[in-house]
Every structure is written in C-alpha cells, then in structure tokens.
Amino acid sequence: MGEEQGKKVLEDGWLAARSTDVELTGIQLTTTHPPSSDASPWMPAVIPGTVLATLLKNNLIPDPFYGINNEAIMDIGDSGREYYTFWFFTTFQCKLSSGQHVDLNFGGINYSAEVYLNGHQTILPKGMFRRHSVDVTDILLPEGQNMLAVLVHPPDHPGKIPPQGGQGGDHEIGKDVTTQYVQGWDWMAPIRDRNTGIWDEVSITVTGPVKIVDPHLVSSFFDGYKRVYLHATAELVNKSAMSANCSLKILVSTELDGNTNLVEHLQTQNLSIPAQSNIQYTFPQMFLYKPNLWWPNGMGKQSLYNVEIGVEVDGYGESDSWSNHFGFRKIHSEIDTVTGGRLFKVNGEPIFIRGGNWILSDGLLRLSKKRYETDIKFHADMNFNMLRCWGGGLAERSDFYHYCDIYGLLVWQEFWITGDVDGRGDPVSNPDGPLDHNLFLLCARDTVKLLRNHPSLALWVGGNEQTPPDDINTALTTDLKLHPFYLKSNSNSTSTTSKDETTLTLMDPSQYLDGTRVYIKGSLWEGFADSNGGWTDGPYEIQNPEDFFKDEFYNYGFNPEVGNVGMPVADTIRATMPEEGWVIPLFNELESGYVEEVANPIWVYHKYIPYSKPGKVHDQILMYGKPKDLDDFCLKAQLVNYVQYRALLEGWTSRMWSKYTGVLIWKTQNPWTGLRGQFYDHLHDQTAGFYGCRHAAEPIHVQLNLATYFIEVVNTTSEELADVAIEVSVWDLEGTCPYYKVSETLSIPSKKTVSLFEMKYPNSKNPKPVYFLLLKLYNTSNSHIISRNFYWLHQPNTGDYKLLEPYKKTKIPLKLTSDISISGSTYNVRVKVKNKSKKPEPVTLLDKNKFMETNLDCDFDEVDKNKNKNKKKEIGLFKKVYGLLKEDDDGVRVSEVNGSGVGVAFFLNFSVRGSGKGFEKKGDKRILPVHYSDNYFSLVPGEEMTVNISFEVPEGVTPRVSLRGWNYDGGHTVR
C-alpha cells in the first residue's frame, strides 16, 4: 500500500539549534546522529516562524514586544550572521508505491538554506519570496523515519542600526530580496534576527508519474457580464522515464446549501507527455451563462466557485489533482479624467476605495490561518474594501489572500522596493535596488504565479514611494502587460460577433503570466498622489477634524497613505509594558501656547505619536480635560481616535468622484506592540477608531460636513436610494432636545454624495457650548434605519469638550437584555441596550434602531441561526455564575443599570473577560479577539440598540461580557 497522494504539511515535531552550537554536519544529523528534544542545544522550533520566535518559545530571550526588552536582545549587526544561523530538524514517514513520486516543498525561507534529507544535500537558492520544490523520490527511506535537517542562513546584508534609528537602518538590507522593515522604521523597532527562518509551511506532495504545477485561471466577459468564459492553463510535469498518455479533467462547481455541489462545467482532454519533460497545456475555453459574480466588500456577495483539475495516466490511474476557489470578476483600473486619481472598476462598477495600508501580521512571522482570518475580518467589519501590502513588508501568502477573497478585500500588492532604502533616506540609500536583479525578478515571477488566481488581487505596484531600477521595471512591465481583452478598449464589450472570440484565441489569456491586472511602477505614480513621484502622500499626524473636509487638505485624487494616531486601551498598555510604562505624558505649555506631550521612554520606544501637532493642532486629549491616570488618558484617546478617523473618511467621501477616487489610511495595524497608526493592537483589541471607520465607510451613510455643517448622504452602491428621510436631533448635557428636524422624503442617486441642508443649531439663539448630534437616515415606509451617526460637538468659540468631564457623574439608567448561543467553543451573544431615561416631549424619535437588513454586510447573521443551540447548557452556566441576572420565560436575561440622571448614555463599550483555567494569575483577563457589530456607541433618551458579540472561549474558561462607558467607569456585568 502506497502513500496517500496529495500534500502533507510537516508542522509538528520540529527542533532547532544555533549552528555554532552544533558540531555535527548535516549528513551526520540525518543519518547516524539525529538530535533529540531532550539533548542540548536542541529545542522545540516554531515553524512557520523565525529564529527569534523559536528563542522566545524556549524562554531564551525576553519578549521583544514587551517594554524595551528588544534592547536586551543581540542585534545581528553586532553579533554577525553566524549568531542567527540555525539548524532546523524534523522527521517524517512516507512509504511510496510503484510509480509514485514525492517533492519536498518550502513555501518560503529567509534567506538561504542547505537542505539535508537522509544524508543527501541540496542547496536552496537565495531569496525570501520564492518557493522551493525538491524531488526527493530517490532518497526517501522505504521503511522508518526520514530525517530532514535545514541550515538556514540570514540575509547576506543584514546591516547595522544607527544610533538615531531611522527608516530601514543603514539601508544595507536593500541589497537583498527580503523584508526591509526589519531594520526598523518610524513605527517599528528593529527585528534583531532580520526575520531569519523558515517562515512559510514545509510540506511533501505525493503524486503519480505526472504532476500539475501552477495552473492559471482567467475569466473573460461578454454581453454585459452575462456570457462568461473560463480559461485555464497548467504546467504538466512527467517525472517518469516513459511517455505518459493522460486524461486531463477540469471541473467547475459551486456550493449550494447543505454541502451540495452543483457542477457548472466538466471537460476532459486526452494528451501525451514525453518522458522526463514538462508542457504547458491550455484547456479549450469553458462557457458559463450568468455566473454569480465576486464583488468587493460593500458592493455585493463574494461568490466563489470550486475549480478542480485532475490528471489520470494510462496504466497508473489518478496521478495528481489540484483545486482552488475562483471568483468570476473583472477588474479595470485607469486614471480618472475628473479627479486625476486612479479609478477602480469591478464588473463595470466604479468602486470608491476606502481602505488601509497593511504591513504584516506579526513581526516574528508567527503566521497562522486563524490570525489571518481575524485580521481580514476586522478590515471587512470596518467596511474597508482595499488593503495595500506595503513594499517594505511581505509578499503575503495564499492564506492571507484566501480570507481577502472570502471577505471582499481588494489587495494592492507591492514588490520589495521602498524609497527610504532604495534611493532616499538619511543617509541617501542606493537607488539601484538589490544587488542581484535577476533574483528579484525570479522572486517577483514566482509571487505572481502564487497569487494570480485570487479575485481579491487588484494590482501590482513596483515599490513604495520609489520605482524599481530601470531594468527591473522594464521586465515587470513586460511580464505583467495586460492581455488585449483587459485593455480599456475592451472594458465592457457587449458584442456577440466572432471578432472578440477571435482576438482571444490569438493567445489565450491564461497563457500570460498574469494579463488581467495593471502594473504600476510605484505608489506615487500613475493616478496615486501627484502621479509623478513627488512626495505627496501623508500627512501622518493628528489633524483638526474639520480640516479633512476642506478643499486644501489634499490636492490629489487618490492618497495612498494618510496617517494618524492610534493609542490602544489601558489594558493593552498594562499587558505589554512594565509599570514604568503606565506613566502618562507630561503636558508642557510652551511660550507659543502649544502644548508639548512628553511621553515616558517606553512609549517613545514604542513609537508613540502625540495628540498634538506644533503650529497646527492643539492637544486633542486636553480638549476633554487633563487626564488623571492611564485609564483616563486612554479613554480620552479613544474619543479622539474615533473622531479623527471618522472625520478622515467622511472628509474623503464628502468629495467622492468630484475630487477623490479613494484613500488608504496609514496604517491599519502593527506587527508589534506599537502606539501609532492602528485600528486594533497586536493583541487584537480594537481602538475606538475602528468603529469610527466602520460607521464612516458604510456603503450608505449619513454624515455632518464638519467644515460647512451641512448634512450629507453618501451612496456608494449601484442602486438609487428612494423614499428615505433624515431625522436630526440635538441633545444637551441636561438631557433636553433643543433642536429636532425631519427632512422631506428624499431620493439619493447611485454613486453620489449629496449635500442636503444645513444643521442650524450652532446658529440658534442660545446654543449650548457642548452638545450631541444624532443623525438617522431611514426608510419612510417602515422606519427602518439605513444609517445612524452620532457626534459630540462644541461651539467654535469654546474650542473644547471640558464640560464632558463633570458629565461623567450623570449616571443614566440602562436596561440590558441579552441572550446567548454556544456552538463548540464559539459564543454568540446578542445584547439589547436601552437608555431608560425619559424622552422629552413632544419629540417623536426613531428610538428602536431597527436597522434595515442588507445583503452587503452579513457578518453577524450567525447569531440568529444559532440562537437555540445548546440552550440547556447556556441556562445552567449562567444561572450558576451570574445569579443576579433575571431570566425571562423565553431564556432571555435582563439586567438593570441604575441611575437617576437624564440624558445621553455616552461612549458605551463592551469587553469580554475570562476566569478559570489559565486566567487565575493572569493580569490581562481579556478574551481576544472579539467581533462586535458596534462598540463605543452612545444612546439618547429612550433609544435602544442591539449589539452582536462573537468570540471563542478557551477550554475551561468562563467568559464575562461587561459594559462600561463615559458615565459608567465601574463596568457592569451583562453575562
């Protein structure tokens, strides 16, 4: 009986040791002297991961993400490369039958490696961003364990870290084809081993005589996307010594409810492959009528088909198979004639881009499917529709792209060039890119083959704020040229003549390296920033919120990087820093009147960015009063985070298509415990900016123009919005409603931002210095809410929110109604929160917040589907733990938050904490990550809102959902 065919990931049982501590050769390690886990210097290894990840796992270095521990870790620039040259070792079994072949595969190694298998050596070539596949059929042991040892060498030019730090250190890392952020940036401390390690999966693949390699799938559209063709080309490798007569099949199916597949297309072709050779085979094009299309987040469903390719060999049977999800969609990109910005169209529909810059998930490259899914879902939850994989980071792997496909995030993928390391910087860096241009191109072409079938992949870009050297740029331009079908002249063909098909048959589009997406030479060229390479992205600091709406804020149509603050919550500071790091900044008022924040050294090390900007923005935290302690500072920072990022996106969408085509925020997350430019921290807790973005980037959105005080409605969808109205209510700190207005019935055109009427309360007779504004866009036929937006505002002449400080003492009564469903380790909690303070008469409000159902955002539907699962378990658990909660007859629980105040329940936020196994002595008791349908929200008198909460609970842990707020600093248990 032979080995089961297919891929087997080698993920368990890896050992590691520093090369200078191992006196044996690779041949000895894999023949006569294999290491064991209980014999020094060998230790359990982290695969995928880096040397630092392995050392941290074994407590041989302090956590580089905690405090300033990173300074205690030896830097490769001081130690030399041998210090971080490591052996990695594992064993596996693989018993082949006659005719079977096996390849040993490495998804990614940084930077070069020597591979030893059962005493046989293979030298892997250099380059972080290339896959390696070695035929090991003839050196496998037919019985017993196969011994694999890999000696991994760091990048050739790891460089040194100058005393002043800087962007990319001394820039030496740019001589290699590897990540550049590892020498440190203004948002990142240096990575001491420069990410040396086996950073992607290791596997073996078992096939018969013929192997399928890197199929390329392409769709082409006619008749307004009704008539679709699927094109497919695959490389077929005959590993045997005889000619192989093959039957090659391709199957296209879609999943229906109940795990049933509907076959859309099945095709079989016969061919012969000469011995010891490989061929490129292109299938005849396959016709589908009106397939379900793949759409970006906010535009429709992310429909995916299953494409399977299999090959059978006469006299052997099934030799190999390959399967992949595929999304039928067409992406088109051009420079918009109105704005000068780059315009993206998907399936013929213009997409207003609102997204962020992505660095990478983890600075120690502990990459996992679970973390990737959380990261990408977070971005979808923020209603983003694009991520830019920045050129100083990774060429992300297929798992990252898989979840972008699932959640509808378009991806802009850059190659490994940055302005700071490749031509700019201090000192000025080498403009000629890596030393080995051919290696760069090998890595680039392999990356294209790895990622090109993903519908989420939107474009290729040569580099960040720089273009590749001329020869590399010319080669990439040639390699990534568009197939004629994807040129603008054919952008939406409706012709049914044979001319179109004839054009396609000249060269099938699947025979191109890509052919379906544009290549742009740099992030500041061709419709981005000033389009000419001028340093016209940014700014990156705090802003006056109203400035985002002003015409002079940004002069170009598409900003690829605009940054801001990103302070996390206080629990994260305590979890990632010693007590010295819990000290909040000093606020020094200078002679100019500007308040300078002086942060503690640990915050400075973690790249804290102040909430003030010399000569432009007075400290935005002090607008709420001087903070007393860490909790107070971080809470006020969340208020600022929310306002800043909501205003940024609302300012851009206010000028949708008239001035802008898109914006990407610098940046969405950090690969370590940084303190700037993030919507969630490295521990996966969201900042309030996350929810400011979630609201501002709604497909349909009502907003206040902070520069003009006009109410605007943004409709980014393909449908006209008819029979809607806007309710406007102003609330003061005494709980009264001094301004109330309901608009006439409105219609909002598709793909438009419409300015409707002025919010006149600031010009009334006696406006309050600080007040709340609630906007609701609703359907007039059933009062369902389409968009809800809540602001806290001050009069221009007062300039701050200090009156909110005493408002903390106004305790608003709340009613919390909750139910729960449990499926395995996943908890779905639905909490209805109602502000029980009395509504002023005679104001009639849409207080139920019945949100209109939409097919565009279904993140939390599972709560309903699982509502009655495990009911018995649910009731027993919460009766025992939370006896204070009242249980209604239907199993729903009600709790009351007492308060005698009247007014707005301000800035409410949920959190989930645990007790039990593993949490007894743990300082940080948060359960993370958690997905909330909303958080950091406010409720006016009489108003209620339902929040859906989803999270996984470790075994033996009891979760507790609690609610805090500006008026509720003590926290109240919901469950």
UniProtKB/TrEMBL annotation:
InterPro entries: Beta-gal/glucu_dom_sf, Beta-mannosidase-like_N2, EBDG/EBM, Galactose-bd-like_sf, GH, Glyco_hydro_2_AS, Glyco_hydro_2_cat, Ig-like_fold. Residues 210-329 form the Glycoside hydrolase family 2 immunoglobulin-like beta-sandwich domain. GO terms for biological process: carbohydrate metabolic process. Residues 342-473 form the Glycoside hydrolase family 2 catalytic domain. It comes from the Eukaryota. Keywords: Glycosidase, Hydrolase. Residues 900-967 form the Exo-beta-D-glucosaminidase Ig-fold domain. GO terms for molecular function: hydrolase activity, hydrolyzing O-glycosyl compounds. The keyword Hydrolase applies. The keyword Hydrolase applies. Residues 38-199 form the Beta-mannosidase-like galactose-binding domain. Residues 711-795 form the Mannosidase Ig/CBM-like domain. Belongs to the glycosyl hydrolase 2 family. This is Beta-mannosidase. It comes from Lactuca virosa.
